[in-house]
Design brief:
By secondary structure, this protein is of the alpha/beta class. Helices cover 32% and strands 26% of the residues. The N and C termini lie far apart (45 Å). Pfam families: GFO_IDH_MocA (PF01408), GFO_IDH_MocA_C3 (PF22725).
Length: 346
């Protein structure tokens, strides 16, 4: 249990935000944060959610921000105007947990992160998280231990089976949801690859519509040229049901070895619940070595305990400023590349 009372948190946006709030209420971080309020422009949705859980409801964000009993906000609105909302929240003296990617405009993203640093406020995302996941740390440790050398190429895959219909939300707008599967779920693979392989120089995009009823893509591929010369690709799709949902499969090739994450199949629906790594490398002239590693860790989960440490200043935790900006900049270039069908510089 936490030695101090749970921090009160108010949730803004009861679409996906309702799911995150419910998971927080029932999960292990419920001793760190207590959901005491919600805010949504839909009064019916707001009344239903707040009545169900016995919490305060606000239609106006300003009213929630004026509630001095709430030091922390979970922001789960759509991407439209996210930076402006973040600025209002941190200028009201509150810290924020939000979701990926919080902004399509790199200039607006940099401005809000810089303002958070200036004010001493905390902004955390689920991807990239404030601290590297355990599996990323293990990959980096293997790179050093086995002297894998320069990165050569990488591949990420995020697959699920959706059959969506147009509903007028931001998911239907190519400007707000570029290369939709990449923007919505491929971002997890992108965040990992940026942490492991470094900055991206240029991108290419291919996308298609196979089964979706939305005007945006349901099948997309992102090509990456890293500044260090490594090549990469990410395939994100709403079209595949192979039982390995949201696995965030990674294949990482180096000069002297290869690392796989969640590449090999497991039971239906279990792929996203653990991180499974396998290393294949060479020692000496012709001796192949292999190692495996596993943890019960979900890619892209909300690191509430790390967020709590940052808010309460139990630990000095810097926002991953450059990692967040790297992701936003690649997403912006990806959006341009989908429109132009050309290679775009990041």
């Amino acid at each position: 249990m936490s030695p101090c009372p749970p921090l009160a948190i108010g949730f803004v946006g009861l679409g996906f935000g309702a799911t995150v709030a419910q998971a927080l209420m029932k999960g292990p971080a419920c001793d760190l944060f207590r959901v005491t309020a919600a805010c949504d422009a839909d009064p019916v949705k707001l009344q239903d959610f707040c009545g169900r859980y016995g919490i305060k409801g606000y239609v106006s964000l300003d009213d929630l921000l004026g509630d001095e009993s709430i030091p922390v906000v979970g922001l789960f609105s759509g991407p439209v105007g996210r930076s402006e909302l973040l600025l209002r929240i941190i200028r009201a003296g509150k810290d924020v947990m939000t979701t990926k990617p919080f902004e399509l405009d790199p200039v607006a993203a940099r401005d809000v992160l810089a303002e958070a640093q200036r004010l001493g406020r905390v902004i955390h995302l689920n991807s990239p998280p404030a601290e590297p996941p355990q599996y990323v740390r293990q990959i980096l440790a293997w790179q050093r231990e086995f002297d894998l050398g320069r990165p050569v190429s990488c591949r990420g895959e995020m697959l699920i089976s959706y059959r969506e219909k147009a509903d007028g939300r931001w998911f239907d707008d190519p400007k707000l949801c570029p290369a939709a599967p990449l923007f919505r779920i491929g971002i997890y693979s992108l965040s990992d690859l940026l942490r492991l392989f470094g900055r991206v120089q240029s991108v290419q995009v291919m996308s298609s519509r196979l089964f979706t009823g939305r005007p945006t893509a349901d099948n997309a591929e992102l090509g990456l040229l890293f500044e260090n010369g490594a090549l990469g690709s990410i395939h994100a799709s709403f079209c595949v049901d192979d039982g390995q949902h949201y696995a965030n499969s990674l294949t990482l090739h180096y000069e002297r070895g290869t690392i796989h994450r969640n590449v090999f199949p497991v039971a239906y629906g279990e792929a996203e619940r653990t991180s499974r790594l396998r290393l294949t490398a060479v020692r000496g002239k012709d001796h192949v070595i292999s190692q495996e590693w596993q943890s019960a860790e979900v890619s892209g989960e909300y690191a509430w305990s790390v967020f709590h440490d940052a808010v309460t200043k139990r630990r000095v935790l810097e926002m991953p400023f450059e990692e967040i900006m790297g992701t936003v900049e690649v997403v912006a270039a990806m959006a341009r590349a989908e429109r132009s069908q050309k290679t775009e510089l990041v």
